[in-house]
Amino acid sequence: MNPEESEMRSTMNAGTSASARKPGSLRGLWVLGAALVLSAPGAWAQAGDAKAMLKAMSDYVGRQKTIELSFDSDIEVITPSLEKIQFTNSGAALLERPNKLRMNRVGGYADVAKFFDGKTVSILGKHLNAYAQFDAPGSLDQLFEALRAGHGVSLPFADLLLTNSYDTLIAGVLEAKYIGRGVIDDRECEHLAFRNFDTDWQLWVEVGASPIPRKMVITSKTLNSAPQYTLRIKSWKTNVEPAPDAFSFVPPPNAQRLSPDTLIGLDELPPETSTGAKQ
Q: What is the pTM of this model?
């Protein structure tokens, strides 16, 4: 724990002790006020507003020929002793529609780069000095589905980058809410919430002419302790000019070529957590 975290925890503990001694404390008023806000009729707008904002985000993203972004992501696992552990990753991506992609993701247990030149997918495990390749002619939309379904390697934000993400995201939604405004990295955002049969998910979309998806949280309701996956898009640029070799892959010296079937091991989690409950 760093000094700031220690100071924060001490402050929180002190506040808790004080509130326990004072029945009419500010802490109690804060909790009561939050409960009143969340339960007040009309606090949330109709589902149509949330769906319309989701559609506007989808249309905006789908129109962009090139996108360059960076992101942070968190994934939670539940241990056999019901302890919730969170693992964090950071990364970046560059895409050019209809069929080019470069992405990297770095965490405590993997350092992975992905390349797609419109014909071949190359995935490099830098921490292993090993790579795998497979043919995947087609669009980016088709690539995202192939990675998910056929090779066990998914992109955390793939559904947000589809040409028509709305149809994919809204499929199976049982309930939609517009929660209100929030702030992500000093940017005002619309806060949307959706419920599916087995997941709840929230999306924060930047306010303005460029409705950029800034944060997404997915909660698995059917898993014990409801683990979450969180994505935060830190930077976002459009109309970029990729270098001529931006999507080309050249294996590093002495890198081992692996079968595509081994790609399942290039995960966001340490190997010992692979059989536990996770989002």
A: 0.80
